Each structure stands twice: as C-alpha cells, then as structure tokens.
Automatic annotation (TrEMBL):
GO terms for cellular component: cytoplasm. It comes from Azospirillum doebereinerae. Pfam families: Indigoidine_A. Its cofactor is Mn(2+). This is Pseudouridine-5'-phosphate glycosidase.
Length: 311
C-alpha cells in the first residue's frame, strides 16, 4: 500500500488524510453491515453505492475495517471485495475485540462501536450506518445490551442511523441513551424511527429540521467538554417503508427461531438479520439498502455543515 498515511495503528488513504487536513467533509462508514448484515454480492453493491452516495453529496467516504494488523480508514476496491466476500468469516469487532483482532492480524469488520472508535482516532466527526445495536428484547434475563450504547455515551462522533430495528426493545434502548447522556435527534421528525418504519410512537429528545442545526448541536456539545456521541435518527424514505404489522410478525418469528437454536452473544444480531431477510422474501434487504443510502446522504450534509462551522 504505497502512499498511505499511517498514524499509530491507523492507515488512512491519501484522499481521506488530505480532506481531514484541509477541513473538508468526511463521512465514516461501518463494515459489519457489509460482512454480517447482508449477503454477498448485495453487500458489495451496497458498500459501493454508499461511497458513491457520500461523494455525490460532496463528502469523502471512509469505510473502516481491520486488515493485516492495521485499522484501515478508507478501503480501496480490492479491500472492499475482500471483506464483502469473506462475509461472516470476518470477525465482528466491537470495542472488546478491536485490540485482539489487530494483535493477531485477523480480518475484521467494525460494528458501530468499533467504527466510532476508529473515526474518533482519525478525526472524523460524522458516521453513517443503518441501525444501531441496543437493548435486546428480554434483556432483563439475557443482559444483552449492545456495546454500541456505551460507545455512544463516551466517544465524540455523530452517528446517523434510521433508528433501531424492533428486534430490539426500543423503549429500553431510548432509556439507556437518556441515562448515558446521548442526545437523540430526529431529522425532520419528533419520533424515533423504527428502521423499516418511519414511526415508533416514541419521542426523540429534539427534532432538527436542517443539517446546520445538527452541526451547531455537535459543536456546542463538544465545546462544552461533554464528550460522547450524538445520535441523529433519519427515518427510512417514505417510498421504501415496509408494513409495520407484517414486519412485527416476521420479527416475532425471527426471535423465536434464534431462541429455539440457542443463539447467544454477538451472533444474535446477525442471526436475526438473516432470518428477517428469509422471512420477508428479501424485502427487508431492499429496504435496508435504501435507508442506509439515505443516511449516507444526510451524513454528508451534516459533515459539510460541521466543517463549515470550523472554518
Ligand atoms: N443493526 C442493524 N444492522 C446491522 C447491525 C445492527 O439493523 O448491521 C450491526 C451493526 O454493526 C451494529 C451491530 O453495530 O450489528 C450490533 O451488534 P450487537 O447487537 O451484537 O452489539
Ligand atoms: Mn449483544
């Protein structure tokens, strides 16, 4: 990899390093959604489409993954192909796994938590994903609460998502975010979106109607020394929304299937995503691809507005 910039364990592409040095907008993108969230080759198609979406909206995309003992910030076409074709054979890396994968030289995809860590190290303020991890249904028994929530509490990055899937317990997820001091902003909505549906009936902490307002909130939070993330929830585009009752039915079956098979720990979320895709005849996948592209577009707008404030 000639001409790549290295900073500690990070390897940045020259384009990303230049953009950051020149205070031009950069958007981080995660890779677990590529390896564990979608099947090959739709995952590769989505990864490329996301990068194009970010570029089309005037920012530089930075897809993040772990390869050959380095945190790669910005993946070229070969690297994207390598990760997408590995699929679930790549490690799924959250905060606890990141040092292990680097030390042993594993191929790893970063979750929301690990992508936030890498983005922060690189100096990238805005990150787009599909859905965040959260408090799982039945967490009072399983204790299954995603490390994404703790990361949002401590790492200063704005995460643009379409809310969270109702494979999770959304009221409990929002309670934890409130306790841990994470602003949950609705983009053009006062309601926290439920991934496939634009509505959940649950309020966000504040509604924002434009990217400048979001950027001002980011700057104010971090200037105050209040470290930690901000969640920007952007509802799925109207045309791509799925029927809420049908999805609830599919989610019930996916949960029952995971339970019957005794799926635990970090395998739960990927298992549920794959089951949903089967149960909806691929419609969940199409919706997922559409919403994540829209999030990439919005994130690019936020990154541009934030960069403009720093000028
Ligand atoms: N939710 C989705 N799609 C995803 C994920 C979550 O709707 O692809 C992925 C993200 O990478 C997220 C991770 O950070 O799963 C959360 O995993 P866990 O629940 O094991 O913390
Ligand atoms: Mn978990």
């Amino acid at each position: 990899m000639p001409n790549h910039l290295t900073q500690g364990r990070l390897t940045l592409t020259p384009e990303i390093a230049d953009a950051l040095a020149g205070n031009r907008p950069v958007v981080a993108l995660e890779s677990t959604v590529i390896s564990h969230g979608m099947p090959y080759p739709k995952n590769l198609e989505t990864a490329r489409a996301l990068e194009a979406e970010v570029r089309g909206a005037g920012a530089v995309p930075a897809t993040i993954a772990v390869m050959d003992g380095r945190i790669r910030v910005g993946l070229d076409d070969d690297a994207l192909e390598r990760l997408a074709s590995a699929g679930p054979a790549a490690w799924k890396l959250s905060r606890r796994d990141l040092p292990v994968a680097l030390a042993v030289g594993a191929l790893g995809a970063t979750t929301v938590a690990a992508t936030m860590i890498a983005a922060r190290m690189a100096g990238i303020a805005v990150f787009a994903t599909g859905g965040i991890g959260g408090v799982h249904r039945g967490a009072e028994h399983s204790f299954d609460v995603s490390a994404d929530l703790d990361e949002l509490a401590r790492t200063s990055v704005c995460v643009v998502c379409a809310g969270a899937k109702s494979i999770l317990d959304l009221p409990k997820t929002l309670e934890v975010l409130e306790t841990r001091g994470v602003p949950v902003l609705g983009f053009g909505t006062g309601e926290f979106p439920a991934f496939y549906s634009r509505r959940s009936g649950l309020p966000v902490s504040h509604r924002c109607d434009n990217v400048t307002e979001v950027a001002n909130i980011l700057r104010t939070k971090w200037e105050l020394g209040l470290e930690g993330g901000v969640l920007l929830a952007n509802p799925i585009p109207l045309a791509d929304e799925l029927d809420a009752d049908a999805m609830e039915d599919a989610i019930g079956r996916a949960l029952a299937d995971a339970d019957a098979k005794g799926i635990k720990g970090k395998d739960v979320t990927p298992h549920l995503l794959a089951a949903l895709e089967r149960l909806t005849g691929g419609r969940s996948l199409t919706a997922n691809m559409a919403l994540i592209r829209d999030n990439a577009r919005v994130a690019a707008g936020v990154a541009a507005a934030y960069a403009a404030l720093e000028k």
